[in-house]
Design a protein that fits this description.
By secondary structure, the protein is mainly alpha-helical. The chain has a single domain, classed as Farnesyl Diphosphate Synthase. Helices cover 66% and strands 0% of the residues. Helix 4 packs antiparallel against helix 5 and helix 4 packs parallel to helix 7. The longest helix is centred in the last third of the chain and has 30 residues. The two termini are 26 Å apart. The mean pLDDT is 95.
Length: 319
């Protein structure tokens, strides 16, 4: 069990209070950028504790929760540069902020300086806090690698939207699942897990691979209708529709073709249903696994994926 008695309702999520430091950043975000609704950040803050590794002591729980939210704000800023704004120049500089040994180039005319400056401020909040983690030095390299996989997924998404012929189901599965950031979230947990046994790392990461796929499917199922409206060809539902000939590139990108017509076609062919059936098969395999991880309650972590799915689907159209 994860220790939660129920799934939070949208009204409960709306009333979730965020940490002061995050609220101040988001006030600036709303003034300067303001693309994402305030509800999203509260939703994320409500979700994170449900799949926190049990190795994190309660005294570090809120610290980890805040750091995951700050990291996700950074990821979201980059994701929007790639998908919504299609601003390659600013994206390529903003990703350097979190790369070891690199610095972004400021002042070029093609770069959105306001956006890049704010993204740098967010990353500074992440970096400053995570360096104080008890096991930061031990997991620093893994954290650096894992977050770049998240950003590579965004880069792939930008390529697909620039060149729709690159959209493939295998690409959506391979690259797209990294956008869920489950490994970098787990890295943060491990940095605050004094009793975690390093011998458990290999089997733990194997489970995270499969859980990340579960998270990706849950996200696709809850967001594909919004992504259809945005013309985001990285959505697994849309990519499968394209691969099976249910949709065409021209239709998805043609503003004269009603989005609801395309959505009805995808529903009639059961694309979302098939993905959720895949989710259930993968989840059943995980619960039937024969894996021993002594220093983490892996059953609670896996159960958290089921709760995550419910929270995603309950918030369709809100996130």
């Amino acid at each position: 069990m994860t220790g939660f008695d129920s799934i939070p309702s949208p009204s409960e999520i709306s009333e979730t209070a965020l940490p002061d430091a995050v609220t101040e950043l988001l006030d600036t975000y709303d003034e300067q950028i303001g693309q994402r609704p305030a509800y999203l950040w509260r939703w994320l803050y409500a979700v994170f504790p449900r799949y926190r590794l049990s190795s994190v002591p309660d005294r570090h729980g809120e610290t980890v929760r805040e750091q995951k939210l700050l990291l996700t704000i950074y990821y979201t800023l980059l994701d929007d540069l790639a998908d919504l704004y299609e601003d390659r120049a600013t994206f390529m500089e903003a990703r350097k902020l979190s790369m070891i040994g690199t610095e972004p180039t400021y002042g070029r005319p093609e770069i959105d300086s306001t956006y890049l400056d704010f993204t740098a401020t967010v990353w500074e909040h992440v970096d400053e806090r995570v360096r104080a983690a008890p096991r930061y030095a031990e997991f620093r390299s893994a954290f650096a690698f894992d977050r770049q996989q998240v950003i590579n997924a965004m880069h792939h998404g930008m390529l697909v939207n620039e060149m729709p012929a690159l959209a493939t189901e295998r690409g959506a599965e391979h690259y797209g699942q990294h956008n869920m950031a489950q490994f970098s979230y787990a890295d943060l947990d491990l940095m605050y897990s004094p009793a975690f046994d390093i011998d458990d790392l290999r089997p733990l990461r194997d489970v995270i691979w499969r859980c990340q796929r579960l998270a990706r499917i849950s996200n696709w199922a809850a967001t594909w209708e919004r992504e259809l409206v945005e013309g985001d060809l990285t959505s697994g539902v849309l990519v499968r529709g394209l691969s099976e000939g249910i949709l065409s590139y021209e239709e998805v990108t043609d503003p004269d073709v009603p989005d609801e017509e395309l959505a009805d076609r995808l529903r009639d062919h059961g694309i979302e249903t098939a993905l959720l059936e895949e989710w259930q098969r993968l989840y059943d395999q995980l619960t039937d696994r024969d894996v021993v991880i002594e220093s983490v309650d892996i059953d609670a972590y896996v159960t958290g994926m089921q709760e995550m799915r419910e929270i995603y689907l309950d918030n369709r159209g809100r996130i």
